[in-house]
Write a structure and sequence with these properties.
Elements: E1 2-8, E2 14-17, E3 25-29, H1 31-37, H2 39-44, E4 51-52, E5 55-61, H3 66-76, H4 87-97
Parallel strand pairs: 1-3, 2-5
Antiparallel strand pairs: 2-3, 4-5
Helix pairs in contact: 3-4
Amino acid sequence: MIISHLFNSSSADLVLRSAPSPDPVDFLVHRHVLSAASPFFELLFTLPQAPDDDDPRPIVDVAESAETLEALFRFMYPMTSPTINTRDQLVHLLDTAT
C-alpha cells in the first residue's frame, strides 16, 4: 500500500484510500479537519466504519483518484494550495468537492 507523502501524520484518526490507478494511495487524515471543511465528511463520519486488522484507524475506500484527493485535501488543510494544470483536473476536483 502506498501512503501519501503529504498526508501521513501519525496522529491521523482515519485512512481514506483512493481508487486504484494503478495502486490505491492511503491518506492518513484527521476527521475534525475534514468535518470542519465539509458537510459531506461530517455526515460520512457519522456512519460506522470497521477498523482494518493491521491498522486501528478506520479505512474508507473512495472512488476518487489519489491526484484528486490530494488536491482536495490541500485546500482543506493549512498548506499551499495545489496547482491545477488541466481542465480535467479541475473538473474532477470540483465534482469531488460538491
